[in-house]
Amino acid sequence: MISFKLQVILIASSLLCVVLLINLLSRYRLELKYSILWIAVVVLLFILSIFPKVFSFFSESLGIELPVNALFLFSIFGLICISFSATLEISKANNKIKDLTQEIGIMKRNVEMLSIQLKLKSEDRDVKK
């Protein structure tokens, strides 16, 4: 069974996270698609802190003696999942940055070539006059 003190800390932490998520979403500092995972984690934490017997049942079912150890196990697993999804998003962003950088390089080269062609045409006109 989770101690009452830990239960209060978990409830307060989950409520604080909800306030933080709402604040970040309202100021457009966090996109909704990224916040869904965090909202799921906070809701799960809130439910498990209100109904600790459910948490005790899961920990006993997995053969974990203390629910606190199960809490750490699930927390680490959740953080690994969040880290993995963040790594995927960073990889996508890096690939997009690379593609955009290459496009900018091609566009700069095209602008330089057009500029040279324009100068040559204007010089030809000056020579013909």
Commentary on this structure:
The protein is mostly helical and 129 residues long. It has a domain at 4-93. The chain has four helices and no strands. The protein has helices spanning 4-26, 32-50, 52-61, 67-128. Helix 3 (52-61) crosses helix 4. The longest helix has 62 residues, at 67-128. The protein is rod-shaped, with a radius of gyration of 28 Å. The mean pLDDT is 89.
Summarize the structure.
With 129 residues, the protein is mostly helical. Helices cover 88% and strands 0% of the residues. It has a domain of 90 residues.
Task: Record the SSE blueprint.
Layout lengths: L3 H23 L5 H19 L1 H10 L5 H62 L1
Task: Provide the structure class.
Answer: mainly alpha
Uncertain ranges: none
Shape: rod-shaped
Q: Kindly report the average pLDDT value.
A: 89
Q: Helix count, per DSSP?
A: 4
Distance between the termini: 96 Å
Helix fraction by DSSP (H/I, runs of at least 4)? over 70%
Per DSSP E runs of 2 or more residues, the count of β-strands stands at 0
Strand content: under 5%
Largest sheet: none
The secondary-structure element order is HHHH
- Oligomeric form: single chain
Radius of gyration: 28 Å
